[in-house]
Amino acid sequence: MSRMVRAAVCSVMIGATMSVNARESVSIHVSPAVAFAPAELVIRTSIEPAADNRVLEIIADSNEFYRSSEIQLEGDRAPRTSMVQFHGVPGGEYDITAAVIGADGHPRTVARAHVKVIGVE
Fold this sequence. Notes:
This protein is mostly beta strands and 121 residues long. The chain has a single domain (3-118), classed as Immunoglobulin-like (Sandwich), CATH 2.60.40.730. It has one helix and nine strands, in the order αβββββββββ. The strands form two sheets. Strands 1, 3, 5, 6, 8 and 9 form a six-stranded mixed sheet that branches. Strands 2-4-7 form a three-stranded antiparallel sheet, with no helix packed on it. The two termini are 13 Å apart.
């Protein structure tokens, strides 16, 4: 592997960390931590049940690519964990977000992660 690719892989491993808001009512984990395009990203979320939870919105966004998925939630009866797979993700730096949307249609809480998919030339 070239030095540039090794450096990119190392930076991805360091930068692909989980980020959660202060209440920790939603968390996100994206794997693999290092991927080559086209990537298969697996996004796992954990949600603290609440009566007001209506939708879990998961987004992968970069300058060149956007994909999203919505999962309907049944308030405090919704499963604590959910998993979404995004197939064929091209190279780029991605902001991954998981937002729990309340009954009023506004985000109640958001978790973020950053992933880099290395493009193959």
